[in-house]
Design a protein that fits this description.
Length: about 210
């Protein structure tokens, strides 16, 4: 499973990239707003740090606006992927952008039928928002299972990008289901390393190692 970082913060992205485990980056307008940098500048900086797909989202909700913004985003760097909302004009834009050789990440996906539409439109990535579904007392990961089944049934090439990840359990379950990608906040990436028995065991090995000559 590929690991993306879900962040618009340059320092966070640098920290995750230094771990050597990063395959890409997802941003959204809310994440980039926290960084305070102009969107295009922030996206260009991210491309200097990570060599993999970097998602930058359009703000327009009409076809022409999304096409204009999408082409501008794609011009920033070859690794830029245009993030488009899962609405009718959005999927129309996905189809045209695909014809122009521009990759897309369809965002705000909350149902398997929406994911089916995105795949039929030719999306490169589909982003189901797992954490936000969990917040409504439903099982977000069930959606990942449904989408993977449907995509396998028909041999779609759209990659399943598990988004709105809130905990290490989300990462574990995404990997068990065979999701293509999990986009993860830095805090959760760091949590993946942690196990108390690792820390206790390491402390004991170091203590014992010091009792004898090297
Ligand atoms: C990434 O592509 C999504 O925009 C992001 O994961 C949403 O996460 P949130 O639900 O924590 O805002």
């Amino acid at each position: 499973m590929k690991f993306f970082i879900d962040s618009g913060d340059i320092e966070e992205i640098k920290k995750a990239a230094a771990m050597g485990l990063l395959d890409g980056v997802t941003t959204n307008p809310s994440l980039l707003a926290k960084s305070g940098k102009p969107t295009k500048k922030a996206l260009a900086e991210i491309c200097e740090i990570v060599d993999g797909p970097i998602s930058g989202e359009v703000l327009s909700t009409d076809y022409e606006g999304m096409m204009r913004e999408g082409r501008e985003i794609a011009k920033i760097h070859k690794n830029l992927v245009v993030k488009v909302p899962l609405i009718p004009d959005g999927l129309r834009a996905v189809k045209t952008l695909k014809d122009e050789g521009i990759r897309t990440n369809v965002t705000l996906c909350f149902s398997a039928n929406q994911a089916l539409l995105a795949a039929k439109a030719g999306a490169s990535f589909i982003s189901p928002f797992i954490g936000r579904i969990d917040d409504t007392s439903h099982e977000g990961m069930h959606l990942i299972e449904q989408i993977i089944t449907i995509y396998q049934n028909y041999g779609f090439h759209t990659e399943v990008l598990v988004a709105s990840v809130r905990s290490p359990v989300h990462v574990l379950e995404a990997a068990q289901l065979g999701a293509d990608i999990c986009t993860i906040p830095l805090k959760v990436i760091e949590q993946l390393f942690y196990h108390p028995l690792t820390d206790i065991g390491l402390k004991k090995f170091i203590e014992d190692g010091k009792k004898i000559p090297v």
